[in-house]
Design a protein that fits this description.
heterodimer; A: 367 residues; alpha/beta; Rossmann fold; 2 domains; 6-stranded mixed beta sheet; 48% helix; B: 314 residues; mainly alpha; ABC transporter involved in vitamin B12 uptake, BtuC; 13 helices; 2 strands; globular
Chain lengths: 367, 314
């Protein structure tokens, strides 16, 4: 037994040494050019929001020739401060931080580093809490993009090849949160714009990681409520929604990234049912912010909310969209988009609305 | 109210109970065997997570779902061996070991996933295979019952066999008897020559096999990919089911179905205009209520026994 102990100890030692060697990743050489760092309050690999932020860094690297770095701070907020301080004490030109879990730490630390420039996305600080003249926050009008998603869903539930006669569409959110509800209200209003008497089934998973939960909820909507197209607003949980649509031969709308493209090679059956995806163009917004900051046209010390007009949000006009919708309907969607950009259509927002108010709207359209 | 009844008495509802219960069933049988041996396997969650990942990787590499399944089971056993070695032979605390395994699993599966796919969230870039679904011959033709029982993933049927296996193992075999003896009283078992560590090790291995199957179901049946932390607490629900089942195979199976039903109900009740927070808490409320009811019942029984004994003594 003793010998076995020694062998196990040896194996552990080797594993640890190898692990440690892996950590000392190659240090890149320092250049004198622009340096931009991104801190995210999660990990990469969500095929959506945070990956999009990382894509933004690649765009910044490519288009502005900057040196970039992405740091995944993970999901434990108690670990954020050391990352934040380390980065603030290095010589980065712009420090980009997202999203809402980092607000508190940003509120206390940003005023301590007045000569650094910070950019936050998909959240904002309480501007009255101190001097934030070195900070710019960008938020997204997810309600505008979701309005288009709702309009597409309303068309699909009446004209889709596999759709049932009932005009019921569904959406599944990760949690009952203001931002998720902002997606939903846009979706509901967009659907109503096309089909005034449409019904919308709403469910919340209460988790953003459990794909099977998303699948169960979507199957329940499809089996019990005659939903034939479902909009997922639930990150990894939502992949299960896409899977449910594939299993039932119905339709889904993806979120945060072009999910039809993401699954095209590995799971063509699933990619095929994703009519379109509603994207928060985090990548574009970060490139835009850094570009404007370099040109000196960015207004520091305030929040900017960007929508369809600024390419902050949008839906994918991909091959599935073109295959499933007639040309007339495709133009109709593009026309609605133009009307929102021109300000002719004003989309309701759930931000700043309390839960009870939104519940009233949700119940009005419930099947 | 009518809507609730419509939902509950639909075949789809019962069908979904079986689908939801499958992974918990494997794990709760694993939990049952180890707890009868006197060790609590908190690490089921982590074992399932490892197995779910290795099922995806093995099936993608070999191009065969069954090889993936075997890979998942082997991984389950391997982690169970690691856990038993640390806890039973090196004598670290079993609960702490289990917690460590769970945390280790949560982090390292993402790391391995990243090494294999370059992705940290989901294994969708791997062309992994899915275990086949089975249309039952005869039973599938019966209306209603057939719709509920037929057409499930093969692993769902295997989970029923796992229940049968557990029952026979614990009640009809020598190993089962020894496992139970070790769990009841280590010293007494030792005095008749049954080495506690040996039988606890065996129980842990079997729970590794079962949890491995549960993990395989998650990524190769329920859905067709691995994603970060996808087991999502099912290992712990299984432990609760085992507690509720009072250490019996049948009881544990029933408790698992109760949890499966609570979960299915929570998914379906979202259709009604109920606060989502309440609906989402149904499975957990069921756990707490179940445990309370069973504890009270157990206590009463115990009190009654003591009273009767006293009367006899008088």
């Amino acid at each position: 037994m003793k010998k076995m102990n020694k062998i196990v100890a040896l194996i552990m030692l080797v594993a640890l040494t190898l692990g440690a060697a892996g950590c000392g990743a190659k240090q890149e050489e320092k250049k004198d050019g622009l340096k931009v760092v991104l801190l995210i309050t999660s990990n990469l690999g969500d095929k959506g929001f945070y990956d999009s932020a990382n894509d933004g860094m690649k765009l910044i690297e490519k288009e502005l020739g900057a040196e970039v770095k992405t740091i995944e701070m993970g999901q434990d907020p108690s670990k954020y401060e050391p990352y934040f301080r380390d980065v603030a004490e290095q010589d980065w030109d712009y420090i980009i931080v997202g999203s809402s879990p980092a607000v508190e730490i940003a509120e206390t630390l940003i005023p301590e580093y007045p000569d650094k420039k910070f950019i936050m996305f998909d959240t904002e600080v309480d501007w009255s809490k101190g001097d934030f003249s070195n900070l710019y926050c960008v938020q997204y009008k997810q309600n505008e993009g979701s309005f288009l998603a709702g309009a597409v869903a309303a068309i699909m539930t009446t004209e889709g090849k596999n759709a049932n006669p009932e005009k019921v569409i569904g959406c599944i959110g990760g949690g009952d949160l203001p931002i998720i509800n902002d997606f939903m209200i846009g979706y509901i209003r967009g659907a109503q714009y096309v089909e005034p008497d449409i019904k919308v089934a709403v469910a919340y998973a209460g988790t953003f990681v459990d794909s099977t939960k998303g699948k169960e909820l979507a199957l329940s909507q499809m089996n019990q409520q005659n939903v034939d197209i479902c909009f997922q607003i639930a990150s990894q949980t939502g992949i299960g929604v896409l899977d449910a649509a594939k299993e039932k031969g119905l339709y889904a709308i993806g979120v945060d990234g072009d999910q039809a493209a993401a699954f095209k090679d590995s799971d063509p059956g699933m990619a095929e049912v994703i009519v379109t995806s509603m994207m928060k163009r985090v990548d574009q917004s970060l490139l835009r912010a850094v570009k404007m900051a370099e040109e000196g046209s960015l207004t520091w010390g305030k929040t900017e909310v960007i929508g369809l007009k600024e390419l902050g949000v949008g839906i994918i006009y991909g091959e599935n969209f073109e295959r499933e919708l007639s040309e007339e309907k495709q133009n109709m969607i593009k026309d609605i988009e133009q009307q929102i950009i021109d300000g002719k259509i004003q989309v309701d927002s759930a931000l700043g609305m309390d839960t009870a108010e939104f519940e009233v709207i949700r119940n009005e359209v419930a099947p | 109210m009518k809507q609730i009844v419509n939902i509950i008495f639909s075949t789809q509802f019962f069908y979904s109970i079986l689908r939801i219960s499958t992974p918990i069933m494997f794990a709760s049988m694993g939990a049952l065997i180890t707890s009868r041996a006197g060790v609590i396997n908190i690490g089921l969650e982590g074992i399932m997570l490892f197995a779910a990942l290795s099922g995806v990787i093995f099936s993608a590499v070999t191009g065969s779902a069954w090889m993936g399944f075997l890979g998942a089971v082997a991984t389950g056993v391997l982690i169970a061996i690691l856990m038993s070695y640390v806890a039973l032979i090196l004598k670290s605390h079993i609960t702490l070991t289990g917690i460590a395994i769970n945390m280790f699993a949560s982090g390292s599966t993402v790391f391995i996933l990243y090494l294999v796919t370059g992705d940290k969230g989901i294994s969708s870039s791997l062309a992994s295979k899915v275990m086949p679904t089975v249309a039952l011959p005869l039973i599938g033709k019966i209306p209603v019952v057939g719709e509920i029982l037929s057409g499930h993933n093969i692993l769902t049927y295997l989970s029923f066999l796992a229940v049968l296996f557990t029952y026979i193992l614990l009640n009809k075999t020598v190993i089962g008897l020894r496992i139970r003896a070790v769990g009841e009283n280590e010293q007494a078992a030792l005095s008749v020559g049954a080495k506690p560590v040996k039988y606890q090790f065996i129980a842990m291995l079997i729970s590794g096999v079962l949890a491995g199957m549960g993990g395989a179901y998650m990524s190769m049946g329920y859905v067709s990919w691995f994603s970060r932390d996808m087991v999502a607490g099912r290992g712990f629900i299984a432990l609760a089911a085992q507690q509720l089942g009072q250490g019996t195979t049948l009881g544990t199976m029933c408790a698992t179905f109760v949890f499966g039903m609570a979960d299915a109900l929570a998914n379906n009740l979202q259709a009604l205009q109920m606060p989502s927070e309440f609906v989402q808490s149904i499975p957990y409320l069921t756990t707490i209520i179940g445990l309370v009811v069973f504890s009270i019942a157990k206590q009463r029984k115990e009190l009654k026994r003591i009273r009767e004994n006293n009367q006899k003594a008088v």
